[in-house]
Amino acid sequence: MNNILCISDLHLDSVDSPLTEALFNLLLEHKNVPTDLYLLGDLFEIWIGDDHETDLANAVAEHLSDFAKDHNNIFFIHGNRDFLVGDAFAQRGNFKLCCDPTYITFGDMKIALSHGDFLCTSDVDYINFRNSVRTSKWQVNFLQKSLGERKTIASEMRQQSKVSSFQKDSVITDVNVDAVLDFLSMEQPDIFVHGHTHRPKIHQHKLNDQTCDRYVLGDWGDTGWYFKIDKNGPELIQFNISS
To answer: DSSP states of the chain as a string?
Structure first.
């Protein structure tokens, strides 16, 4: 049985950044231990299509593909920054695209995995935006535009997102607790791992006779975060990233 490793919210934007180096070091560190790696969204700061080949995209694909050799597997759940990652890049990086949420097991434990943004139901504007850009119609229309047009649109969307987030109360941009409890009551996982909110913490939810531990991954900056479960049990791990 492979160990499980989950990361999210790296927001990579340059092949030369400390964050990119930290990712490659993490892959190297776990390469020789059979591992199922789950990328829970926002691996990239921006993704305008698989046809936009950059040094960063090429390097990440190469390192992921190398990690996925032998006994390792990689799975990708889309985030709000990289929801346009498609089959072509998945093939290059030797990983599998997964739905959100995705369910796996480790021993007798049921584990739910997600980027987490679908639970931010208090932020109505964001949910409406998410529902729009996740449709095939919107994505086909966007990907038919030139790379230059896509870059401009993506830059404008990112700027609007920053302004909007700055103006909203932190309670609005966090997951909605009622939405979380409804999801957990329906799916009944033993562990729920997600990112998106950049608020790393372990929450314990009691639902009737069952308890679910919710592991919220942090974004990467001066430190990085990952969730790991092996024979010793689950952990939320923080580590330093050198600048």
So the answer is: --EEEEE----B--TTSHHHHHHHHHHHHHTTS-EEEEE-S-SBS----TT---HHHHHHHHHHHHHTSTT-EEEEE--SSSTT--HHHHHHHT-EEE-SSEEEEETTEEEEEE-SGGG-TT-HHHHHHHHHHTSHHHHHHHHTS-HHHHHHHHHHHHHHHHHHHHHS-HHHHSPPHHHHHHHHHHH--SEEEE-SS---EEEEEEETTEEEEEEEPPPPSSEEEEEEEETTEEEEEEEE---
Please state the domain count of the chain: 1
Residue 140, domain CATH = 3.60.21.10
For 132-180, how does the pLDDT look when each residue is reduced to its tens digit (9 = 90+)?
Answer: 999 999 999 999 999 999 999 999 988 888 887 777 888 889 999 999 9
User: Which residues span the domain enclosing 108?
Assistant: 3-240
The pTM (predicted TM-score) of the whole model is 0.96
